Amino acid sequence: MDWRYSTRVEGFPMNVSVVVPVKNEEGNVLELHREIAVAMRSTGRSFEIIFVDDGSTDATFSLLKQCAAEDACCRVLKLRRNYGQTVAMKAGIDAAVGAVIVTLDGDRQNDPADIPEMLRKLDEGYDVVLGVRTVRQDALLHRRLPSIIANRLFSMVSGVKCSDLGCALKAIRASFLTDIELYGEMHRYLAVLLQHAGARCAEVRTNHRPRVSGRTKYGLDRTMRVLLDLLVVKYRLQWFNSPMRLFGSFGAASLLLSFAAAFGTVFMKLRGTDMTGNPLLLLTVMAAFAALQLFSLGILGEVCARVYFHASRRTGYVVAEQLNSSDEDSGSL
User: Fold this and answer.
1) Are 128 and 221 contained in the same domain?
2) Contact 111, 209 (CB under 8 A)
3) Which alpha helices (DSSP H) does the chain contain, by range?
């Protein structure tokens, strides 16, 4: 096993970190570790493999300890309990020291042999390379069909075209992950969050293999959580910096509706119409209160956004490059 100690040298910067969240994958982790090591060794780059055990109840962690003992490039994080795939992936990303971070699932359906091609694509000047599963090896009803619907809906709502939203195999420059917040099922929307951060993205067709061991953790209930998180992504991308644009628009519409209903109420009253049971007066009052509440939510949202940016010391922008910066001799006369 000459792949064990081949690519981690003390004192030299790490080039690639491969992050793999796993849960109850005792039948897959040993072979997956070998496949990743072989694929990464073929690139000639320094690398580390980070397995994140997300609360496994089988022998997964014991086998990962074996991998870590035999391979100096293999690091293992064991979470105290099951937090979910997104949090496990975030833990691995936070622990990674590589300039490039590669993520993939721990069920061996993503093929590590595709990683070298993705890294070569990254070298062409892209910031993110996304895997696209060409031939899905999953059940149609509860995996492929929900994925197709989610991809179409995602493109419609976000305006970002993404061929395969659910493919976990990605290669990302670590500098773009610094300010990305991952929670819920947000790892699935990593592509659009990175594009929103200014990353240049490319796609690479990848091999998708059938699961040979263990049980899938995906189902229709998870699809529903993914769709709900889509609403959060839409809000974050379009209205997070200025919530009043969203709530103020609905508030203005409610206020116009209230004025229209009030005008109709007065007009009908002046014509002598019997107003008993007429809904326009009630609509006037309800729409006015709705407008007041929506404007109030917009103001509260603006305050919360400002507090968030101030407390987290975020500026709302990222500088890609500086020329003649103030801490250098500008050469001015």
Assistant:
1) yes
2) yes
3) 29-41, 60-70, 85-95, 115-122, 145-158, 190-196, 220-238, 244-270, 279-311
**What confidence score (pLDDT) does residue 99 get?**
92
Structural domain ending residue among the three candidates 180, 210, 238:
238
143 and 34 within one domain:
yes
Domain assignment present for 319: no
The whole-angstrom separation of Cα 102 and Cα 112 is 10
Tell me the HSE value of 68 on the side-chain side, using a 13 A CA sphere. Answer: 14
pLDDT for 10 equals 47
Question: Which CATH number covers residue 113?
Answer: 3.90.550.10
- For tokens 């400002």, what's the residue? 306
Phi, psi of 307 (to 5 degrees): -65, -40
**Domain coverage including residue 280:** 244-311
- Answer whether 0.70 is exceeded by the pTM: yes
- Three-state DSSP at 94 gives helix
Domain count, the chain: 2
pLDDT digits (tens, 9 = 90+) for 21-77: 999 999 999 999 999 999 999 998 999 999 999 999 999 999 999 999 999 999 999
3-class state of residue 298 by DSSP: helix
Return all residues near 207 (Cβ < 8 A) that are at least 6 apart.
111, 113, 114, 134
Q: Could you say which of 220, 238, 256 is where a domain stops?
A: 238
